[in-house]
């Protein structure tokens, strides 16, 4: 589903590479934690997959596409295959919960009837039934993240990328969000989550990929956050 072959990224000439010679394959349906200290290259890794950045060396393949060769007008098609969730939720502040989720379908040209049947289903899945008419500021952080996940997943993309999705949430709320991501993964969705949340990683025992200074230093099945704590 995602494959990087000898991928490097240098942002500016002479700078240390943000990623250096990365080889990795993530299969359909995998759940993968991407860990590493600040500046290790996690966000750059996610940006290459979304084609927000391009590699300076090597090849990136996502959902059957060779991104090096993907022309700009095809990038929106790639992005339909990838739901993205961020630490800061990024909801539209002037739209209701329902509108935030339905907007994601409107912009890809879905019809009213399909939207009206899909959105309630998705809000039910994320545990927000009954809160359709709330505005984002009337929700807790955990609820806002559930809206963001509903929006990212409403068109059932095969890949969900999560950049620190529990970074702004307390531990109890984070567990709820992880249960939801786990459920989404069990539907066959590939989940790739960059995180600093050691408790979550240690609880879930999924595949762990660790970056250090732009190098891939660990790829561990049923892994933990830090080997020294194993
Ligand atoms: N747009 C950019 N221009 C120049 N350098 C960048 C840019 N984005 C990232 N970098 C550099 O690339 C390296 C990797 O950064 P990246 O944001 O990928 O790390 P990260 O692991 O996601 O960090 P964090 O956990 O703090 O989000 C860092 O040295 C950073 O300064």
Automatic annotation (TrEMBL):
Tell me, what is an example of a GO biological process annotation in this record? Answer: cell division
Assigned keywords, A-Z = ATP-binding, Cell cycle, Cell division, Cell membrane, Membrane, Nucleotide-binding
Q: How does it assemble?
A: Homodimer. Forms a membrane-associated complex with FtsX.
Would you identify the family this protein belongs to, as annotated? Belongs to the ABC transporter superfamily.
Record-linked Pfam families:
ABC_tran (PF00005)
In terms of PROSITE patterns, this protein maps to: ABC_TRANSPORTER_1, ABC_TRANSPORTER_2
ABC transporter domain spans which residues? 2-230
What InterPro entries is this protein classified in?
Answer: AAA+_ATPase (IPR003593), ABC_transporter-like_ATP-bd (IPR003439), ABC_transporter-like_CS (IPR017871), ABC_transpr_LolD-like (IPR015854), Cell_div_FtsE (IPR005286), P-loop_NTPase (IPR027417)
The answer, when asked if NAD is one of the entry's keywords, is: no
How does the UniProt record describe the way this protein sits in the membrane?
Peripheral membrane protein
The species this protein was found in? Demequina zhanjiangensis
Location of this chain's protein in the cell: Cell membrane
Q: What's the chief localization of this chain?
A: membrane
Q: Which SUPFAM superfamilies match?
A: P-loop containing nucleoside triphosphate hydrolases
Q: Per UniProt, what is the name of the gene that codes for the protein in this document?
A: ftsE
Q: What does this protein do?
A: Part of the ABC transporter FtsEX involved in cellular division.
What protein name is recorded for this chain?
Cell division ATP-binding protein FtsE
The Gene Ontology terms for molecular function here are: ATP binding
- Which stretches are transmembrane? none
């Amino acid at each position: 589903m995602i494959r990087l072959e000898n991928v490097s990224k240098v942002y500016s000439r002479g700078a240390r590479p943000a990623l250096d010679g990365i080889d990795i394959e993530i299969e359909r349906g995998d759940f993968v934690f991407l860990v590493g200290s600040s500046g290790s290259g996690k966000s750059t890794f996610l940006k290459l997959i979304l084609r927000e950045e391009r590699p300076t060396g090597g090849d990136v393949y996502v959902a059957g596409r060779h991104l090096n060769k993907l022309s700009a007008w095809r990038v929106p098609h790639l992005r339909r295959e990838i739901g993205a969730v961020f630490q800061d939720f990024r909801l539209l502040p002037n739209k209701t919960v329902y509108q935030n989720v339905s907007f994601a379908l409107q912009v890809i040209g879905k019809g009213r009837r399909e939207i009206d049947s899909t959105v309630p289903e998705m809000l039910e899945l994320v545990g927000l039934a009954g809160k359709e008419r709330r505005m984002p500021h009337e929700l807790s952080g955990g609820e806002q993240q559930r809206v963001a996940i509903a929006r990212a997943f409403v068109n059932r993309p095969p890949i969900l990328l999560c950049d620190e999705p529990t970074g702004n949430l307390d531990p109890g709320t984070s567990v709820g969000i992880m249960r939801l991501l786990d459920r989404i993964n069990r539907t066959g969705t590939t989940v790739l989550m960059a995180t600093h949340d050691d408790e979550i990683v240690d609880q879930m025992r999924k595949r762990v990929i660790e970056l250090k200074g732009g190098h891939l230093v660990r790829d561990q099945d049923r892994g933990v956050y830090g080997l020294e704590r194993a």
